[in-house]
UniProtKB/TrEMBL annotation:
This is ABC transporter ATP-binding protein. GO terms for molecular function: ATP binding; ATP hydrolysis activity. Gene3D superfamilies: P-loop containing nucleotide triphosphate hydrolases. InterPro entries: AAA+_ATPase (IPR003593), ABC_transporter-like_ATP-bd (IPR003439), ABC_transporter-like_CS (IPR017871), P-loop_NTPase (IPR027417). It comes from Lusitaniella coriacea LEGE 07157. It holds the Pfam family ABC_tran.
């Protein structure tokens, strides 16, 4: 669906994209992860033809990106692009017209996009009277109004409460079931874990790792992560080294990569003689993979 090859972009002397390669397959939800300043928005702006790349190629549905491919893509940018004093339907009519929709077809698309984001009952509500979650959903409706094949959601749930976030996650899954391909950027690793079939990790304008969550898990050579608390962490680390366990700090948490699943009693016996305050265990998560990949 989307093929980006060797994309480069500089702002003045600052090289922001350094030969970026990224492939989004038809029908998938692809999660593009990266820290602030990694180059996600720059990539999206180039995709939407709002910014020119210095070099590289982008193809959508096997066509080079151009004004002609604009209608294949819908974008819901990070900042809602909504006219707050207009109603939901008026906003959608405005954006629909930009994509050349008119008359009955425009009206139908306005209704369908509002229904798609569960705002069918709020067509005439003025945007500033809607909750933050509803405004985010309307922002997604704008991306859908011209029936694109690929939609780009730039941090769709940032700043929303958990219920509004669930609603947007359900919406994204529904859109995928309708056959829309989705490229999503997020800082929320659990969002990417829940929604995305494949994930790309971007740093300094390069994709450092890409694949399914299962494939990315090979970056962390552990069956599970065990976090231990003890008065003397150095003793724990020395013991872990003797046993061949890799250790990492996740924030303040001293954690160990377990090469195989151990019963609780076995973990305790590994650290025998060291008074432990607590033991907690968790599977390898995207958070662990992300930290490993981006520190390389
Ligand atoms: N118009 C511009 N002029 C100069 N530098 C820019 C411009 N736009 C972005 N940058 C710089 O390019 C780098 C990449 O920015 P970009 O907005 O693409 O990152 P991002 O991954 O989207 O970050 P965030 O998660 O914070 O949105 C940053 O260092 C940013 O400061």
């Amino acid at each position: 669906m989307l093929r980006i090859e060797n994309l480069t972009k500089s702002y003045g002397s600052r090289l922001v994209l350094q030969g970026l390669n990224l492939h989004v397959r038809v029908g998938e939800i692809y999660g593009l992860l990266g820290s602030n300043g990694a180059g996600k928005t720059t990539t999206i702006n180039i995709l939407c033809n709002l910014l020119n790349a210095d070099s590289g190629t982008i193809a959508i549905n096997n066509q080079p990106v151009s004004k002609a491919t604009r209608s294949l893509i819908g974008i819901a940018p990070q900042e809602n692009l909504l006219y707050k004093s207009l109603s939901c339907a008026e906003n959608l009519r405005f954006y629909g017209k930009i994509y050349g929709l008119k008359g009955k077809h425009l009206q139908q698309q306005v209704v369908l996009s509002l229904e798609a984001v569960n705002l069918g009952q709020r067509a005439n509500s003025v945007v500033e009277t809607l909750s933050g979650g509803m405004q985010r959903r309307l922002n997604i409706a704008v991306a859908l109004v011209h029936q694109p094949k690929l939609i780009i959601l730039d941090e769709p749930t940032t700043g929303l409460d958990i219920e509004a976030r669930y609603e947007i996650w359900d919406l994204i899954r529904r859109l995928q079931r309708q056959g829309i391909t989705i490229l999503l950027t997020t800082h929320l690793l659990d969002e990417a874990e829940r929604l995305c079939q494949r994930i790309g990790i971007l740093k300094n304008g390069n994709i450092l790792a890409e694949g399914t969550l299962e494939a990315l898990k090979t970056r962390v050579k552990a069956e599970e992560i065990v976090t231990l608390k003890a008065a003397d962490e150095k003793v724990l680390i020395d013991r872990a080294n003797e046993l061949g366990f890799v250790h990492r700090y996740y924030s303040d948490d001293l954690s160990f990569w377990m090469p195989k699943h151990l019963e609780l009693a076995e973990i305790i016996s590994c650290f025998e003689g060291i008074p432990l305050d607590s033991i907690s265990r968790q599977p390898v998560r995207l958070e662990h993979i992300y930290l490993e990949v981006t520190k390389e």
